[in-house]
Amino acid sequence: MKIHVLSLFPDMFTGVFGASILKKAQEKGAVELAVTDIREYSVNKHKQVDDYPYGGGAGMVLKPEPMFNAVEAITEGRKPRVILMCPQGERFTQKKAEELALEDDLVFLCGHYEGYDERIREHLVTDEISIGDFVLTGGELPAMTVIDAVVRLLPGVLGQEDSHIQDSFSTGLLEHPHYTRPADFRGMKVPDILLSGNHAKIEAWREEQSFKRTLERRPDLLEALELTDKQIKIIEKIKSEM
Which of 87, 128, 206, 208 is catalytic? Predict the structure, then answer.
C-alpha cells in the first residue's frame, strides 16, 4: 500500500512514522509512507496557501490551487482514495479502517486555519473522515490515527496474522480481559479458567466476557449486531447476574 500525506507541518509525522508498528510495516515492505509540504505546490512566490474568505468572516481558508497541484503531482494520473480529515466528515470506525485497508493507494489531506475552499471537497476529495465530535488545530493528528488503524490491518504487519481480529470493535464487541504472568500478583489472581488448559472453556469465557464488557460500557454496539440464539442466552445470563 502507498500512503501519501499532504500537510502544512510535515515534521509532525517524523516520530510517529519512524517508530513502532508503522516503522516495522515500512521495513517489511507492507506500506510506503510519504509526507509532503503543501507549500511546495503554492503558486505564490511567498508560498502562501491560504486567503481571506469571500463574504468576510473570521479566519483564513486553504486555497484550492496548492491542494489540486499537490494531489495531481503525487498521483500522476492514478485515482486513489483522497481523504479529507475534517470534523464534518463521517465518524471513523473499525469498519472504515478495514475498508481502507483493502486499497492500494491512499492520500490524506490535512489542513489548518478556518477550513478548506469548498471546491476541494466537491472536486478532489473522495472521503471525509472525522475521529470524533471535537475540533483540533489541524488534520495531522487525526490522519496519524487513521493511518495507524489502517496499516496494522495489512497482511504481514502484525506478528500474528489473526491478532487484530479479536480487537475491540473488529467483532462488533469490546475485547475480553487479558492476563499474563504472574498468576498471583499481590493477592490479585488470574481467573482459574485461564489456567485450566481447557481451550473450549477458555473461548466460551472470553466470549461471555466480551459481551459483559460491551453491556457495561457500550451497550449501543449490541444494537447493530445480529445475535444468535446462543448469544442471546449469554446476554440474558449476564443481565441477570448484573
Answer: 87
Scan for cell 469498519, then name that residue. 95
Structural domain tally of the chain? 2
List the chain pLDDT tens, one digit each, 242 residues. Answer: 999 999 999 999 999 999 999 999 999 999 999 999 999 999 888 999 999 999 988 889 999 999 999 999 999 989 999 999 999 999 999 999 999 999 999 999 998 877 899 999 999 999 999 999 998 999 999 999 999 999 999 999 997 655 555 555 667 899 999 999 999 999 999 999 999 999 999 999 999 999 999 999 999 999 989 999 999 999 999 999 98
Other C-beta atoms closer than 10 Å to the C-beta of 130 total: 17
Query: Are 135 and 190 found together in one domain?
Result: no
pTM for the whole structure:
0.88
Task: Output the known binding site.
Answer: 111, 131-136
| Residues of the domain holding 95 | 2-151
Based on the fold, state whether residues 234 and 137 are members of the same structural domain: no
Domain assignment of residue 68, yes or no: yes
Q: Which residues fall in the annotated binding site for S-adenosyl-L-methionine?
A: 111, 131-136
Task: Please state, in angstroms and rounded to a whole number, the distance separating the CA atoms of residues 15 and 82.
Answer: 23
Do residues 228 and 144 both lie within one domain?
A: no
In a domain, 200, yes or no: yes
The yes-or-no answer on residue 87 being catalytic is yes
Choose, from 99, 103, 167, 175, the residue flagged as catalytic: 167
